[in-house]
TrEMBL record, chains A, B:
It comes from the Bacteria. Pfam families: ROK. This is ROK family protein. Belongs to the ROK (NagC/XylR) family.
């Protein structure tokens, strides 16, 4: 079977792609419309899949389907246990989609799918042990070892965003204080910039760009823009963020001993502005035996990593 | 094959045991005499194994042998790459022992063997994902998932003793500053007690017991004894040690998501004096989803864990 379909369900949009071997032959994005419930989304996903197959002349029974869903997933049972973004609880995704499409369907957490795609066809291609992190709204990690995802008990391994660091003062949505993702995430970057400007009264071009109280609309992307204009606040925010992320990654490397660490997700658009201080911190905090054998690289597949990873995961799950 | 031999090579002594099923049928300890080189030790191990087999009436070809060696091990190649304690470099242990005994031989790092034994027959018995740490001269960890050890790239996963924590001021032998094992180890416990008494001038029964400058002879065991006499310094040292160890374990749990965390090694003799603050810190630093599904328990096999784990590892390696 050389065709496989990947479905990357996000809080706002759902991306659907048809892979022909390693190539994305066709793809489409539809609104998730989480408020309308899972069955509405499943109907629209099934219709979109049929449309893609029709356009590419692929028979409806010649595919496998893999789906990435945010939140806690029981990948063995095919159930989305708790997806806060979608307001889903105990949704039997695999059963519902199999009814609609009549082909093998598999699901897993969206970050695992993203890293699976990068490990097989992206920045981790050809590497045995791949640790991937996505720096987006939050921060999460997944490990692919010898082509297999690492799950741990309850499939809960890799919540790198929720290790509390001693020097991080922020309270996290999870209830803990100091979680890495309160700093090392798109929201964390914006928050730190706001704190330096509004709380500490530091001069910054960001103040001019976002004059309103609380700096509404300020994003991590704006901090990168300000960085490129030499703004001291933006430079400090990305350095601090890189240092904390580098500390977390040093801990993860010491536990997992990957061969490569790839950094993706929306906030990774900061690129070397973020990766340079990440590498500096890792070199400082890792035994040289680890540091000398790893590389820290940006993710390579861009927005398509989730769809590609989901498609490959669905294919590989059906083959097992 | 129901007989298997385990060899636990330490810096001072080497323990050798014959397992009959799950029972240690016979065992013996010999001096390692590291200064005399590996071949002397291999000769004496082989003679001791033959002696144990003779005593139990087991034929010399009816066994498998597993060996735990401290340091960095290439377990696939059967080579001890670098064992500082033994002053071994690139010693082909498996080949040399196979020549002598003519049976299947496997080796791995001694901490992995210890945790493997505990996972299969000790405190992790019947549990899918077992994280074990040994708190001895240093601190190290290993993970057994579904009966298999987790290795990572270069077989280097799990150096929990070498994650640097922000509030630890000590320089580590590895070259980093703040490594967890500079505090959470037998040497770390003694060091902290010395610092409180000698550097900070705190009153302590330990000062009376060890009046000499630098408090020579003071061990972690003495700190436990002082703790039991209500000594404030000893209580503070074990609380601090437990807090830092708990922080490291919280990070490890978030990465690996084990079902059980078992704490062994010499300094684990402190028992609940150490485990109580460990658990407190873990509960404070872990998302409740993790905390609620794990237990933190002392290792169960005592001194025999290394020999038992090595024996089972040799048996399982031969069966693969």
């Amino acid at each position: 079977m050389s065709y496989c379909v990947g479905v990357d369900i996000g809080g706002t949009n759902t991306a659907i792609g048809l892979l022909d071997g390693e190539r994305v032959a066709a793809k489409e994005s539809i609104p998730t419309l989480a408020g309308e419930g899972p069955d509405s989304l499943f109907d629209r996903i099934a219709a979109t899949v049929r449309g893609l197959l029709g356009r590419c002349g692929v028979p409806g029974d010649a595919i496998t389907v893999g789906m990435g869903v945010p939140g806690f997933i029981d990948q063995e049972g095919g159930v989305a246990l708790n997806s806060t973004n979608l307001r889903w609880r105990d949704v039997p995704v695999v059963a519902r989609m199999r009814e609609r499409l009549g082909v093998p369907v598999a699901i897993d957490n969206d970050v695992r799918m993203y890293v699976y795609g990068e490990a097989l066809l992206g920045a981790g291609r050809g590497v045995r042990h791949v640790l991937g992190v996505t720096v987006g709204t939050g921060l999460a990690a997944a490990l692919v070892s010898d082509g297999r995802l690492f799950y741990g008990g309850g499939s809960m391994a890799g919540e790198l965003g929720h290790i509390p660091l001693e020097s991080i003062p922020y309270r996290c949505g999870c209830g803990l204080t100091g979680c890495l993702e309160t700093v090392a995430s798109a929201t964390g970057i914006a928050r730190q910039a706001r704190d330096l400007v509004e709380r500490d009264g530091r001069a910054s071009v960001l103040r001019e760009w976002f004059p309103g109280e609380g700096m509404p609309g300020l994003t991590a992307r704006d901090v990168s823009r300000a960085y490129d204009e030499g703004d001291a606040v933006a430079i400090e925010v990305l350095r601090r963020t890189g240092e904390q992320l580098g500390r977390g990654l040093a801990y993860a490397v010491t536990m997992y001993s990957p061969d490569v660490v790839l950094v993706g997700g929306g906030a990774a658009a900061a690129g070397e502005r973020l990766l340079a201080p990440v590498r500096e911190a890792m070199q400082r905090l890792l035994i040289s035996d680890y540091w000398e054998r790893i590389s820290v690289v940006p993710a390579a597949l861009g927005d398509e990593a989730g769809v590609i990873g989901s498609a490959l995961y669905g294919r590989d799950a059906a083959a097992r």
